[in-house]
Amino acid sequence: MTASPVTASSAPASSVSGLARPTVDALRAKILHHLEYTLAKDAGHSSRYDWRMATSFAIRDEMLKPWFAATRQTYDTGAKRVYYLSMEFLIGRLLEDAMINLGLHETIAAALAAEGQTLSDIIEDEPDAALGNGGLGRLAACFLESMATVGVPAHGYGIRYEHGLFRQRFEGGQQVETPEDWLSQPHPWEFARPEAAYIVGFKGHSELRRGKSVWVPGETVKASAYDTPVVGWQGKWASTLRLWAGLPTTQFDLERFNNGDYTAAAAPEALARTLSRVLYPDDTTPAGKELRLKQEYFMTSAALQDILRRYQSQFSTLADLPKHVAIQLNDTHPAIAGPELMRLLMDQHDMGWDEAQTVARATLGYTNHTLLPEALERWSTYLMGSVLPRHMEIIQRIDEDHAKAHKRPPSVGIVQHNEVKMGDLAFIMSHKVNGVSALHSELVKETVFHDLHKLHPDRITNETNGVTPRRWMRLSNPALSTLLDETIGEGWTRDLDHLKTLEPFAQDAAFREKFAAAKRANKVALAGWVQDTMGIDINPDAMFDIQIKRLHEYKRQLLNCFETIALWHNMRQTPDAGWTPRVKFFGGKSAPGYFVAKEIIHLINDVARTINADPVTGHLLKVVYPPNYNVSMAQRLIPAADLSEQISTAGKEASGTGNMKLTLNGALTIGTLDGANVEIRDLVGADNFFLFGLTADGVEKRRKNINHAREAIEDSQNLRDVLQMIVEGRFSPEEPDRYHGLVDRAWHHDHYLVAADFDSYWEAQRAADALYRTPQDWNRKAILNVARSGFFSSDRTIRGYMADIWDVPSALKD
Ligand code: B1N
Q1: pTM listed for this prediction
Q2: Modified residue N6-(pyridoxal phosphate)lysine is at which positions (predicted)?
Q3: Cα–ligand 1 centroid distance for 65 (angstroms)
């Protein structure tokens, strides 16, 4: 080991103000201390893992001060607290995020360098905490960071899944899932809190005792807390992520064990641990399994018990709960919170029915994240009644009360056709219901909650999603961040609206060159990674065209794939026609049981294999689909994107957040009028956005023509050629009929209107090609995208929730 001696070193170069930051030497000494005393390792014989752990512990020590200070101030001032209940927190890697927010990036790099270690290697060693599927879980993670930046006294509550979202591999182009294993190594960011543990019951029955309903559960488990601090920008505030792990309530059965019945002896433990074993890998569609309902209740009940315990340690009357507590439900997954909060207030704290309902409603808010009919959670009354008998009683009475109070039509009930509609339950039990983009919130009023909205016209509001500029710019795109700092100052990191001041620089040729150089550097870095990991040679001067998101038919990766085939076909016919070279990137996982999405993955990989082997078009077109897309891969791809693919069938994508990250990082969008694309286009300007396709209204109308797909295909030579090539086995010569089913569906069951939008998409793509050939114009528009995307900070979103839903002020002075 080539360690240089510890010198009396200078102060760190970072720009954070107001924080007492350690010097390089102090941090170096801390890292060495943790190496020796926490990990019991000798610096000379330490692995990369050891260095990462020691570095993480050293950084974690620095998080404690702001974390304690925020906690203490919240107690001392009796401030109102926000609780964000979510089955998913897709937090990704934490080391670099913490270093950046604490202003210690350069200090740590220097401290490690003095020990012969490379910070980037250590950062890369950290596994992604993939405790979420996609946008909904990543939004929860951005919110925790923004609440810590804006100064909200906040806890996130979720499940400490032993296995997060599965890992994806491709075998012969097909997705293969293997378990994700992030906890196989100790997680350095969490603190076990065995003293914060609650009993959660299931099953059994509800009985009357002295006129009061009492639930006698048939099974119980223990929820045990693990806390992770989340520090905001410049360490001025911090929030807490509290995740629950399932433990048995009964002692290990020693007698059975001694009698040789090892399985039975361990049964209670296995049952309890199942609750926090694995994240359901379904994005946008509910699993509908008993275990999932149990997981939802497990998280929600533990959270509410913890919230009431903390409240009662500080305040006396539960009637005042909504003055001091706001609870936000991330979709319907924790919607059992309504009946559970009422149960706790009534059965354990002797509150009457009406008051319990009033208090619960004033405390709860519900965010809807999807309108897909198949995505709305419903549980059979049989399952709900057997897993949660007391809650079933409460739900029925909530429903009856609501029917009486509002003389409502029969179609509105929570319980319908022997199913509990969790959306309706969440709506009725919340004082505010919000959608996640302007368009989505309007559609929520018109569709799923049409009748309830009429009865409660002031309940639905909009809070357009956002993303944290710390992770999605400062951390992931240092090249552009530095250029922004030099050009408009560093204020954008805390207040993304500062980006507006970049606008005049779009006209400045010298700035455009610097901007282009930053983008190119990111593309060169990505090209190097693609070469190293996939062995594909790509040209950094080609347009990098990127579609990264979960695989879902409504997101229409298939439309992009068809256009790729058409482009290739056209390029082959006239290779010298002045084509704009492109690299098409795809990234994303399919739910394991989603056959059609898996078939689309297979096709994209077959198309990539064919195109990438073609010498005629090798300099013009490549297709890259790296396996196992996750948060860290997003951080690599987004800064290098020229074109952002946001091409969902209009009316289907509630918001999208990848669209915001890509715009912020200077990609131009090709997209439909769907979700937050509408707001992106309004803000960046129609001239700086490639619009195509039917509108949400147009989609509904077009669907009424049952021949819409056939007519569109017959009208489009390009699309006919594409389908013909696929059906002939051009991309699967070893199995020519591999995609007959897929092509048949394209003709006859095109629910997401791929065919109807194809020509319009093709035209928009050619407009993008043309613009890319004039780099001055492309870069000007890209700069305007950056300058006008300040609205998409999750800090702005959080301020919206604070004002419209939570009624919480910032705890920070400035
Ligand atoms: O939530 C994101 C939005 O930006 C996306 O448009 C939306 O699709 C996404 C069941 C979901 N909606 N619903 C889910 C996830 C997991 C699950 O088990 C549903 N995810 C979204 C953030 O608002």
Answers
A1: 0.97
A2: 661
A3: 34
Edge to edge, the sheet with strand 621-624 lists 621-624, 582-587, 543-548, 643-646, 668-671, 690-691
Q: For residue 704, indicate whether it is catalytic.
A: no
Element (H, E) at 548: strand 543-548
| 619 in active site | no
Q: How far does the centroid of ligand 1 lie from the alpha carbon of residue 292, in Å?
A: 16
Encoded tokens for 71: 């906690």
Residues of the chain with CATH 3.40.50.2000: 78-93+128-465+798-806, 537-775
Pick the CATH number of 78-93+128-465+798-806 from 2.40.110.20, 3.40.50.2000, 3.30.70.580, 3.30.750.24: 3.40.50.2000
- CB-ligand 1 contact for 137 (6 Å cutoff): no
354 CA distance to ligand 1 middle (Å): 33
For 369-385, the pLDDT digits (tens) are 999 988 899 999 999 99
Assembly ipTM: 0.99
* Cβ pair 543, 774 in contact under 8 A: no
Over residues 129-185, the pLDDT tens digits come to 999 999 999 999 999 999 999 999 999 999 999 999 999 999 999 999 999 999 999
Which of 471, 555, 584, 681 is catalytic? The answer is 555
Write the pLDDT tens digit of every residue in 212-266.
889 999 999 999 999 999 999 999 999 999 999 999 998 777 888 888 888 888 8
CA of 284 to the centre of ligand 1 (A): 5
Kindly state if the Cβ of 599 falls inside 6 Å of ligand 1.
no
Q: Is 677 in the pocket of ligand 1 (CB under 6 A)?
A: no
What homologous superfamily does CATH list for 537-775?
Answer: Glycogen Phosphorylase B; (3.40.50.2000)
Active site residue 813: no
Residue 432 falls in the annotated catalytic set? no
From CA 441, how far away is CA 450, in angstroms rounded? 11
CA–CA separation, 646 vs 691, rounded Å?
A: 10
